[in-house]
Amino acid sequence: MSMKYYITTYGCQLNVHESEKLAGILKEEGYESADDIKDADVIIFNTCAIREGAEDRVFGNVGALKKLKKENKNKIIAVCGCMTQQKEKADKLYKMFPFVDIIFGTSNLYKFKEFLNKKTKRLLAYDEDFNLIGENMPFYRTSGDNAWVNIMQGCNNFCTYCIVPYVRGRERSRKSEDILKEIKEVVREGYKKITLLGQNVNSYGKDCGEICFSELLKKVCEIDGDFKVAFMTSHPKDLTSDVIDVIAKNDKLLKEIHLPVQSGSNKILEKMNRKYTREKYLSIIEEIKTKIPDVRITTDIIVGFPGETEEDFEQTCDLIKKVSYDGIFAFMYSIREGTIAEKMPNQVSFEEKNRRVNKILQLEKEIKKGKNNGNN
Question: Taking the model in full, what pTM does it have?
Answer without folding.
Answer: 0.90
